[in-house]
Design goal:
The chain is α+β, with helices and mostly antiparallel strands. 53% of the residues lie in helices and 16% in strands.
């Protein structure tokens, strides 16, 4: 934690610690705005930034998302990409004082690899302390208040009063997904494997909401029935329980997972899973995000407000995958995956999955960008 007295009020300091263009006037690390947050601001909730840290021959590029931007007092960001991180949270608070403001900068980091935490702290902390000293010098020379900054960019959680009702609906959907998986399994239909994964993902989302691991809990819960409707309706059309035909992206995935005999089970599972995950992420996810936004939040906030929650939910898919792999007979899990799960940190399994199976990390980020285009934000 770093604390520093600044000779300027919080309203004057705020843009200089949140807007990448102004941060580069004092930060030794280079801050680049990759995509703005709400209101088109680089320091607003949902903004994506890249931070380049250099120390001698060592160069690290971290990608951050702004999680909270409560002007002019509290700013929270998370590293979502770069060095292998298990957890990161940076928080800047500005408190008014008689002479200006008190800046407090807290950074919590957890790394999966032994020794990496010490190495990163040795790299980051001295630069952060030197940068804050430069900011103090800048404030001492005078920081004019920036009239272009909004009076507030608060991103309080929306619709908390609806959470309990939405949780009951989500629990009912989870029960239906489990029942669907069991029904398919009883019929010896290999599509029950993906139905099982769908239920694991839903369970992980519900657990995250109950644990307050996301800010906008109602938003997360409102996504669940939309995801389920797209998938379940396509499956029921495919097997003839509903009129019409499955959409092309689901038609291909569901046909790929058709029974092919015991000797082809692993191929069926691998190819069918890849196509089903692609159908969900590339086909369903952007329009589901857009549908929920247009139905419940249009005119109240921008979709980009939810980007931090969306990105911070990515590990839930790893957890759902781990739960699913635990249900598979070991012979159906590729040797490289078994080895990675036994000896490597979970983050390494993500890298292996992206390289050898499907890069869901990249495609999920792209899906959110497509959803913003669908609602007219890009």
């Amino acid at each position: 934690m770093i604390t520093r007295e600044l000779a300027a009020p919080p309203s004057a300091v705020w843009p200089h610690v949140t807007d990448p263009a102004k941060m580069n006037a004092w930060s030794l690390a280079k801050i680049t705005l990759d995509d703005p947050g709400e209101g088109g601001l680089g320091g607003a909730v949902g903004a994506l930034r890249s931070v380049t840290i250099e120390s001698g021959p060592v160069r690290s590029v971290l990608r951050e998302v702004v999680e909270h931007a409560d002007a002019p007092s509290r700013f929270v960001y998370r590293v979502i990409e770069g060095v292998p991180l298990r957890h990161h949270r940076g928080e800047i608070t500005l408190d008014a004082t008689a002479r200006g403001s008190r800046l407090t900068w807290r950074v919590a980091m957890e790394f999966p690899l032994p020794g990496l935490s010490l190495a990163m702290r040795a790299l980051v902390l001295p630069q952060l302390e030197a940068s804050v000293s430069r900011l103090a010098d800048l404030a001492a020379r005078g920081l004019p208040e920036d009239a272009s900054q909004p009076a507030t960019t608060r991103d309080d959680a929306l619709d908390e009063g609806a959470v309990e009702g939405l949780l009951r609906e989500a629990d009912a959907i989870l029960a239906a997904q489990r029942a669907l998986s069991q029904r398919l399994e009883a019929a010896n239909d290999p599509r029950h494997w993906f139905a099982r994964v769908y239920a694991f993902v839903t369970a992980c989302q519900i657990e995250a909401v109950r644990a307050h691991a996301v800010t906008h809990r109602a938003w997360v819960l409102r996504l669940i029935p939309v995801f389920h409707r797209y998938y379940a309706d396509n499956l029921r059309r495919f097997v003839g329980e509903l009129p019409g035909v499955a959409e092309p992206h689901w038609e291909m995935a569901l046909r790929r997972m058709a029974p092919r005999g015991r000797e082809a089970f692993l191929t069926t599972l691998t190819e069918g899973f890849r196509d089903a995950i692609r159908a969900h992420i590339e086909g369903d996810l952007p329009r589901a995000l857009a549908e929920v936004h247009q139905r419940h939040y249009a005119g109240r906030c921008e979709l980009v407000r939810f980007r931090a929650d969306y990105l911070l939910m990515t590990p839930l898919f790893r957890e759902a995958s781990e739960r699913f792999l635990d249900t598979l007979p070991p012979r159906y899990v590729p040797f490289s995956m078994r080895l990675a799960r036994r000896w490597a940190p979970p983050e390494s399994v993500d890298v292996l999955t992206a390289r050898t199976f499907y890069d869901y990390l990249t495609t999920r980020r792209e899906a959110f960008a497509r959803a913003m285009a669908l609602v007219g934000e890009r």
